[in-house]
Amino acid sequence: MNARRLSWVCVLVAAAVAASPAWAGEEEKKPERKPDVIFVPTPHEVVEIMLRLADVKKDDFVMDLGCGDGRIVVAAAKKAGCKATGYDIDPQRVKESLENVKTNKVEDLVTIEEKDIFTLDLSKASVITLYLLPSLNVKLIPQLEKMKPGCRIVSHAFDMQGVKPDVTATVACKDGNERKVYLWTTPLKKEKPTE
Known about the structure:
Elements: H1 3-19, H2 21-24, H3 44-53, E1 61-65, H4 71-80, E2 83-88, H5 91-103, E3 110-114, E4 127-130, H6 134-139, H7 141-144, E5 152-156, E6 167-172, E7 178-185
Parallel strand pairs: 1-2, 1-4, 2-3, 4-5
Antiparallel strand pairs: 5-7, 6-7
Helix pairs in contact: 3-4
């Protein structure tokens, strides 16, 4: 191969690599698996009540399972000054959460991780926040039962079948709708099956 042809091959390879989305850092990363729920943000007034019901304080460690845009962990850090971690399986949600953390200048308190929530060790958390489907809340019970006594679990909209909540609150939202918020404390109180 002569020098001129070799230089054209090098130019074409360099152009192809530069145009490649992976090289440019623009490739959309696909989730490990399809997310269990579609992202619907929790209204800010519901976030406020969730954190209040869970009585989040500075020495708490909050884990948000399926963190979406990170609003709950950001609010916990800003209001209580506590450490918090948000988990989501969707890379797009992780990206949005990281931007939210940076915008709100809480990088020293909040971390965001791309993980499957059903593989997590929840034992370090003192507060768990959820906005999942009822079946997913139930699927989490074995992990929640390994938490230390006195930990709080708070869920927007959906209960946990077979487990009695300590508190059920109704939140009037600015959009005119009402939302339910459920609070449980570990050890979970199992409901007796109805006969």
